[in-house]
From TrEMBL:
This is GTPase Der. It comes from the Bacteria. GTP 1 binds at residues 9-16, 56-60, 119-122. The chain holds residues 1 to 163 of 473 of the full protein. GTPase that plays an essential role in the late steps of ribosome biogenesis. Residues 3-163 form the EngA-type G domain. It comes from Roseibium aquae. The gene is der. Coiled coil: none annotated.
Length: 163
């Protein structure tokens, strides 16, 4: 059995874009509207010579009851349980938001390894957000652009020990 990697984070940080980038197909729905991902269908990801199962998570699941925060938290906790490693995404352009901090609280409590990713960092964009990301207490952030395919070598190095 190969490793499973879950992508978590608040809506609109680029989780589905990264999922699609790693799977190489447009399986996950990407949209500017937060919460458009409605399933947690796994994909077969490739990154260099690494092969693993990747799980995209939605920011919101309509079928579940409760508050938005509660739904996102439950989904995140499920993904964390299933995974051998977690990719925790923030939007480097937006910086660290209260909702990012909320997700980070959940992520810090797990024994599953968490890799912190500052997405949307193409070119020089998001350098402030990259520094802010240290405040989440999840170690050194990796600057990535899921949309432009940047930072994937650093992502490879970070994932290699776990997959
Ligand atoms: P999710 O809600 O976390 O799954 O986020 P999505 O993957 O649906 O992306 C939300 C928005 O961010 C979309 O408009 C994407 O095109 C955009 N986006 C995703 N990755 C990047 C990136 O690396 N750079 C930039 N500039 N935009 C991105
Ligand atoms: Mg999505």
């Amino acid at each position: 059995m190969g490793a499973t990697v879950a992508i978590i984070g608040r809506p609109n940080v680029g989780k589905s874009t990264l999922f699609n980038r790693l799977v190489g197909k447009r399986l996950a729905l990407v949209d500017d509207t937060p919460g458009v991902t409605r399933d947690r269908r796994p994909g077969e990801a490739r990154l260099g010579d690494l092969k693993f199962t990747i799980i995209d998570t939605a920011g919101l699941e309509e079928a579940e009851a409760g508050t938005l925060e509660g739904r996102m938290r439950r989904q995140t906790e499920e993904a964390i349980r299933e995974a051998d490693a977690i990719l925790f995404l923030i939007d480097a352009r937006a910086g660290v938001t209260p909702l990012d901090a909320h997700f980070a609280d959940v992520a810090r409590r797990t024994t599953t390894p968490v890799i912190l990713i500052a997405n949307k960092a193409e070119g020089r964009a998001g350098s402030d957000g990259l520094y802010e990301a240290y405040s989440l207490g999840l170690g050194e952030p990796i600057a990535v652009s899921a949309e432009h395919g940047e930072g994937l070598a650093d992502l490879y190095d970070a994932l290699k020990p776990y997959v």
